[in-house]
């Protein structure tokens, strides 16, 4: 625990309350209560400024701290690199930048090039710009549209919000640019078609949109391997294979957004590697350095890379983009050590084992609590969809879902839930603990949810 007492931290709380604009927060509440200020973390444990201890089931609130808090070796790697060279713009190289790009692509057969920036939103925006430039240079201005999926989420910029399948996140920030087209979700629990091969049918719905828009206008399809904030949606059998076939049939680039699932979250290095597909773009952020430094990566195939150097005489032919903080060396330095920890501590294997335990525990709770309609998950990324009526699948009221989250917090356990994202369907509890979680901690998460469900739903 931090050596400072709560009284020592009262000026910090006052300064935060007076001057910090918190993410995703209605600040009216802070007229009567203090904002929570965390001061220290170790493993999965957090302490706040009042001295309270919490078990973190969200890896830093937004699925980021994959290897847990308090990793001295990552902090040292960052410190040592900053003293040697902290920054030079990405037009030049750096030692950690080169070495991490090499180590990263070694984990991603078929992918060869890494473009650095500093957030998942920015990494995705780079892809959109690449697709538009490829359309201009390779297709006479055609194939400029980007398809995105209902319930998926890709970032906070105007362009990435234009590809948000979560309407409440995009609300009030329009109008949005043209050329971004929605395709249906693939959540089998709330399936749109009563067919035997639902996964293939959900993928075929993408082809229907392509044919409606015109295949010669569609350049890219962006998807999360497992839908994250839209309800922890694992793809149904046959879905990904059919998606790959459709993209190849119409010469559409496949962009996999691994901002949440990347670097071990699903039990493989990347979520798409569970499904035997070969993307053209892979984007990542969050777990790349476990939050010890800001970094994101846009990774491409050599084929995509070559599209920007096939005519050196064209002064507008290269990718004319810059990310200022993509030149920071702390990100790749932290990412290299983060990757070493995942490998040497067997965290992919732990993720599979602890993920199975967590899903098993949630399914056991489903037998006890009628409020749980469905349990979904891959590795240490799990969700429990809450319902008012299991027979009709009527979603639980969002206030009740948030009451479960609040009850767990009162028990000292942090979990999450879909929140103001999808109108009428903000009803899925979310868990994504650090990959170092152990069996006792997994059981503590499910025990907290058990008690909360009893108190909220009876």
TrEMBL record:
<comment type="similarity">
    <text>Belongs to the class-III pyridoxal-phosphate-dependent aminotransferase family.</text>
</comment>
<dbReference type="GO" id="GO:0030170">
    <property type="term" value="F:pyridoxal phosphate binding"/>
</dbReference>
<dbReference type="InterPro" id="IPR049704">
    <property type="entry name" value="Aminotrans_3_PPA_site"/>
</dbReference>
<dbReference type="InterPro" id="IPR015421">
    <property type="entry name" value="PyrdxlP-dep_Trfase_major"/>
</dbReference>
<keyword id="KW-0808">Transferase</keyword>
<dbReference type="InterPro" id="IPR015422">
    <property type="entry name" value="PyrdxlP-dep_Trfase_small"/>
</dbReference>
<keyword id="KW-0032">Aminotransferase</keyword>
<dbReference type="InterPro" id="IPR005814">
    <property type="entry name" value="Aminotrans_3"/>
</dbReference>
<keyword id="KW-0663">Pyridoxal phosphate</keyword>
<protein>
    <submittedName>
        <fullName>Aspartate aminotransferase family protein</fullName>
    </submittedName>
</protein>
<dbReference type="Pfam" id="PF00202">
    <property type="entry name" value="Aminotran_3"/>
</dbReference>
<dbReference type="InterPro" id="IPR015424">
    <property type="entry name" value="PyrdxlP-dep_Trfase"/>
</dbReference>
<dbReference type="GO" id="GO:0008483">
    <property type="term" value="F:transaminase activity"/>
</dbReference>
């Amino acid at each position: 625990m931090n050596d400072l007492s709560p009284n020592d931290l009262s000026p910090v709380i006052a300064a935060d309350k007076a001057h910090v604009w918190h993410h995703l927060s209605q600040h009216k509440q802070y007229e009567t209560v203090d904002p929570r200020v965390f001061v220290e973390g170790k493993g999965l444990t957090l302490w706040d400024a009042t001295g309270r201890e919490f078990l973190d089931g969200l890896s830093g609130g937004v699925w980021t701290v994959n290897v847990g808090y308090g990793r001295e070796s990552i902090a040292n790697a960052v410190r040592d690199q900053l003293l040697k060279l902290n920054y030079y713009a990405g037009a030049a190289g750096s030692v950690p930048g080169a070495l991490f790009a090499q180590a990263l692509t070694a984990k991603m057969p078929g992918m060869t090039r890494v473009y650095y920036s500093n957030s998942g939103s920015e990494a995705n925006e780079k892809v959109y710009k690449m697709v538009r430039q490829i359309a201009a240079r390779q297709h006479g201005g055609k194939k400029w549209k980007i398809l995105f999926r209902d319930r998926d989420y890709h970032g906070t910029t105007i362009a990435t919000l234009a590809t948000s399948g979560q309407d409440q996140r995009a609300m009030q920030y329009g109008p949005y640019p043209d050329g971004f087209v929605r395709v249906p979700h693939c959540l089998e629990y709330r399936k749109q078609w009563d067919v035997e091969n639902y996964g293939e049918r959900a993928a075929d719905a993408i082809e229907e949109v392509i044919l409606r828009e015109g295949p010669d206008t569609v350049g890219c399809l962006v998807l999360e391997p497992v839908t994250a904030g839209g309800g922890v949606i694992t793809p149904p059998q046959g879905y990904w294979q059919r998606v790959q076939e459709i993209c190849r049939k119409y010469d559409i680039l496949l962009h996999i957004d691994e901002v949440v699932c990347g670097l071990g979250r699903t039990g493989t290095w990347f979520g798409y590697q569970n499904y035997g597909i070969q993307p053209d773009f892979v984007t990542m952020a969050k777990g790349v350095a476990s939050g010890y430094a800001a970094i994101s990566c846009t990774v491409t195939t050599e084929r995509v890379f070559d599209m920007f150097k096939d005519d050196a005489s064209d002064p507008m032919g290269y990718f004319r983009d810059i990310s200022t903080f993509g030149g920071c060396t702390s990100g790749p330095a932290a990412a290299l050590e983060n990757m070493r920890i995942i490998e040497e501590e067997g965290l992919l294997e732990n993720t599979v084992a602890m993920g199975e335990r967590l899903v098993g525990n949630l399914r056991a709770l489903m037998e006890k609590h009628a409020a749980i309609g469905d349990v979904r998950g891959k590795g240490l990324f799990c969700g429990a969809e809450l319902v008012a009526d299991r027979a009709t699948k009527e979603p639980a009221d969002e206030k009740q879902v948030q009451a479960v989250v609040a009850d767990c917090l009162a028990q000292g356990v942090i979990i999450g839930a879909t929140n103001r994202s999808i109108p009428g369907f903000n009803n899925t509890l979310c868990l994504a603990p650090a990959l170092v979680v152990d069996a006792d901690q997994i059981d503590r998460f499910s025990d907290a949810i058990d008690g909360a469900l009893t108190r909220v739903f009876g």
